[in-house]
Amino acid sequence: MLNDRTTAFYFTILMFIVFLGIFGPMLAPYDVLTTHYDDNGNIMRAEPPSLAHPLGTTHAGYDVLSRVLVGAQPTVLTGLIGGGMILTIGTTIGITAGYVGGRTETVLMRFTDFVYGVPLIPFAIVLITFMGVGFLSSIVVIGLILWRGAARVIRAQTMQVKQYPFVKVAKATGASTPRIIVKHILPNVAPMAIFFLAMGVGYAIVLQAGLTFLGVADPFVPSWGVMIRNAFDSGYMASAPWWSITPGLLIGITVLSTFMFGRGYEDLISEDGASAEAETVTA
Amino acid sequence: MSDKPPLLEIRNLKKYFEQNSGLLDMLLRREPNHVQAVDDVSLTLEENESIAVIGESGCGKTTLLLTLIGLHEMTGGDIIYKGRPVSEFTSAEWKRYRRNVQVVFQDPFNSLDPKMTIEETLQEPLKIHGIGDRKERVRNVLEHVELNPPEKYLRRKPRNLSGGEKQRVSIARALILEPDIILADEPVSMLDVSTQAAVLRKMKDLIEDFGVSMIYISHDLSTVSYISDVVNVMYLGRIVETAPTDRILAEPKHPYTEALVSAVPIPDPNHDRERTRMSGAPRDPVDLGDGCRFRDRCPSVIPPDTIEIEQEAYREIMEFRELLERDEIAFERVMNTLSGSFSDDRKMADAIREDYFTHELTGENNAVLKEALLAFVNEKPEVATERLRKRFESVCETSPRTVEDEDGWRVACHHYDHGVTEMQIDQPETAQSD
């Protein structure tokens, strides 16, 4: 699967980010809440990058590099939980509606349409006031809304796959509905589902940063989104660009590589030659 | 007739589809239109018999097949499998039926799940019915369809097979459960000609080896003659003729069959033969009503005894009447060919006549047509319809009975229904009332 160079490249980046998510806190040279002082005893307020602080410091004298490393963990978590929720809810609703059809489909799809009508940020703000401001709740809110696109597209795909003769043959041979869904529908909509997982990971990270930026997510979990918000709030955004640019770039790279990896993976499994996949088939 | 019931008996099977009605229709409580895809079809399939259903696209043959495998619900009639009606099946009986009745579809390119290897595809039916010995059976069946050696194919995916190989796998999948009946929907029509022959030959051998009965559905008479003992000719949802294959090809009785047979190409440039002229396309099978369904295209539609008219001229009148009743006369188009005003009725009537008729009529026939055309341009189409009906109504406007003309030869055509000597098989009129 990783023969394809582009996909392998993005996969490496993703692995690196996951690595940061797991080991970042251990690699951090300083504690994230340690204020650093210069030789004269003054706080190192928004110092530009130096040897001791390769990415500079914040306006409170914190080390930016340490915060970036520690912040990787909540960011990766956001991507996984948010993307996972979008994939699970979207695929379940999409396949059920597309395959079962009839009244079930009408109910599910009208509900999806309704969710489409919900403006994301205001809704998140309202929901969070009920669920309480928190790191996890902000991700859950994202997952609860963003499945809508996946549901629609996967329903359409399911309806298409359902029409193929091989599904009719399976039905005529006596395969039950769950069996047809698991054996025939799911594998055939999987490429699209994976694509939506990649998109979902990206969306979740960006939106969580956005929510933090607006102040409706927990500001004390130092994710990359929170860092940008802090930089903005402090008024040092323009004069200390090193503070916000690094986490911003990292969010961008993560989203891009998830997206590109998802696309590459989709291409690879839909062209699946006998060579790569045959070995994994259980005899 | 023996005591044993036939393997599969289809009795007056009907499948109607309701045409999607819009919101407005629903609000006004209009009756939805019915597409009569399969209408009163009766067939019998004995053990080890191979019968064919042929007809042009849209005649309902695929709907018939999908109804037979239970993917469409029947609108009326019944299917009797080994003496048990399908409409009364319990779920255990359904399972048995689904195991014993297998299907091969037309399109080999989409008949196999692209995500499954050949081995998985062939094992699926066995798994569904909880049959063991799966590896052995898969190998066997692959050898039977001449995909040798089986090891070479087991782990391949459909995309790595040619069209002919795919269709062989489809046939293998149908055979692996050792069914009683295989329903084949144009299984070779999408393969190229050299492969067609090989796959057909294989199918023929296999149904003999395995003792399987087959219903073979096709539009292609030349393949049908190779594989089937009996041919059923279907037109717009009804079976119009049933006869042993070789005889139906030699001397077709129903005018529609005649047209089909004369359309089979003969690979001899010097061969000259008379072709049966068949114009137009079949009607939409929507709310067809009574009467022979082929009457608007029939080259030998029967004029009433009371009038004297040339066959060709009569056909034109019948075609015109049909259009008139369906309100499909291209009045505007004809008027556009007229220069000047719309005031002169006679001129308008003549223009329509010129557009739709080429044959001369004489005497009373001519007078009636003139009268009718005048009524039509005076915006009284009902009067025109009535005039023409009174004069030219054909016996073909009542549904013909299916009569057994000779041994095993059934035709539903008024030309062969002389009413006295023949045995009456069924009467569509009575069945239609429900």
From TrEMBL, chain A:
Recorded topology in the membrane: Multi-pass membrane protein
UniProt key word Cell membrane: yes
Biological process annotations from GO: transmembrane transport
GO cellular component, one term: plasma membrane
Keyword annotations from UniProtKB, A to Z: Cell membrane, Membrane, Transmembrane, Transmembrane helix, Transport
Domain of life the protein comes from: Archaea
Classification via InterPro entries: BP-dependent_transpt_permease, MetI-like, MetI-like_sf
Entry-linked CDD domains: TM_PBP2
Listed transmembrane segments: 6-28, 76-100, 120-147, 193-217, 242-261
The ABC transmembrane type-1 domain, residue ranges: 72-262
Localization annotation: Cell membrane
Pfam families associated with the record: BPD_transp_1 (PF00528)
Keyword S-adenosyl-L-methionine: no
Family: Belongs to the binding-protein-dependent transport system permease family.
Listed name of the protein: Peptide/nickel transport system permease protein
Source organism (scientific name): Halorubrum vacuolatum
Automatic annotation (TrEMBL), chain B:
Keyword Nucleus appears in the UniProt entry: no
Ranges where the record places region Disordered: 265-286
InterPro entries in alphabetical order: AAA+_ATPase, ABC_transp_ATP-bind, ABC_transporter-like_ATP-bd, ABC_transporter-like_CS, Oligopep_ABC_C, P-loop_NTPase
GO BP annotations, alphabetical order: peptide transport; transmembrane transport
Domain ABC transporter: residue ranges: 8-261
ATP-binding as UniProt keyword: yes
Entry superkingdom: Archaea
Keywords tagged on the record: ATP-binding, Nucleotide-binding, Transport
Molecular functions (GO terms): ATP binding; ATP hydrolysis activity
NCBIfam families noted in UniProt: oligo_HPY
PANTHER family, sorted: ABC TRANSPORTER, ATP-BINDING PROTEIN, TRANSPORT ATP-BINDING PROTEIN
Protein name: Peptide/nickel transport system ATP-binding protein
Species for this entry: Halorubrum vacuolatum
